[in-house]
Amino acid sequence: MIIAREMAAGQDLAAEVDGQWLFRHGDLVLGPVSGSQIVEKLKTGELTPDSPLALAGERDFHPMKDVEPFKVHVALSEARVRVDAAVQVEREKNRKRVMVLGGVACALALVLGSLGLYLTRNAAVHGWFGEDEFEGIEMEAPVIRVAQARQDDEELFEYPTQGTARPNKPADTGTTKPATGTSKPTAVASASRTEDRKPPRPSGSVNTDAEGMEVAQQFDQSAINRIVAGNKSTLFKCFKEEAERSPGLTTKIPLEFVIGNDGKVNKLWVDNPQFKKGPLYDCLFTELQKWPFRAYDGERATVGLSFNIGRRG
Fold it and tell me: Is the CB of residue 255 less than 8 Å from the CB of residue 239?
């Protein structure tokens, strides 16, 4: 019924504008055209409510909005224009709203990403998120000093440490003998040059060896401590795996590693006869080589760590 009424109303409107009409376009008088064509031109925007119209044969032109047969069509056209303008305004508002929401979402994602990076970095440095996972594993404070020779790796030179001066290379006479009675024997300088030794200076200073050559200690102990603190949990994983392989394991595991001048760990000793080689040693060495120490010049740094595995009564 509604559709039928609308069709009837459309037919009535068409009948009202029936006839031949002239219209002006600038200085031109065009036509004659039918009333339905005038209405169509109004819909497409070719004519406006102010366009002058006249019936064919008449000389007086009047604005379309003042011509009775077209007043209804002009009103409908103006209503459509208002609706289209409102729709356009709403679309623009929605577009701006989407842009604002998108900007807020991007900013929020950036903030959350930065926060996540901050938390992850602090978790690595301070051992957050998972300390309970390594319960029963404790690390003593690291000891950092200049690299020394070891009995099982004599290609490393002994450098001065606390209370120890840098030795000269032993003479061919065979007077140099390794120290005994310690798990970390050090080379002893030849007697002819003992009086030339000088006490060491703190890291970052310059030592003078027996031959008058200056050797700089340029590694940064505080930076090394930060790297150790930030990455120690990677070694905890190795100890946890070893504890799973050896249920009830309770022991102290001292270890020592050398940081090369390129910043990479290139030597490792595990000073526990049970773990000098094997899966634990391999795991520790693999993880240590990932630690991001900075490259430096001068004497190489040795870092001593000691871990207590299991609870002791």
Answer: no
Residue 252 has pLDDT above 70, yes or no: yes
Structural domain for 303, as ranges: 135-169+198-313
- pTM, whole model, 2 decimals? 0.41
Structure tokens at 142: 């690291």
For residue 255, the surrounding DSSP H or E stretch is strand 251-259
Top-confidence residue, 168 or 257: 257
Say if 95 falls within a structural domain.
no
309, 253 in Cβ contact below 8 A? Answer: yes
Q: Residue 133 has what pLDDT? A: 56
In-domain check, residue 115: no
CATH code of the domain covering residue 9: 3.30.1490
Query: Which of 294, 139, 148 has its CA nearest to residue 221?
Result: 294
8 Å CB contact between 311 and 136? yes
Tens of pLDDT, residues 66-121: 999 899 999 999 898 899 899 999 999 999 989 998 888 888 888 888 777 666 55
Burial annotation 241-254 (CB, 10 A radius, 16+ → b, else e): ebbeeeeeeeeebe
* The two structure tokens encoding residue 254: 């001292």
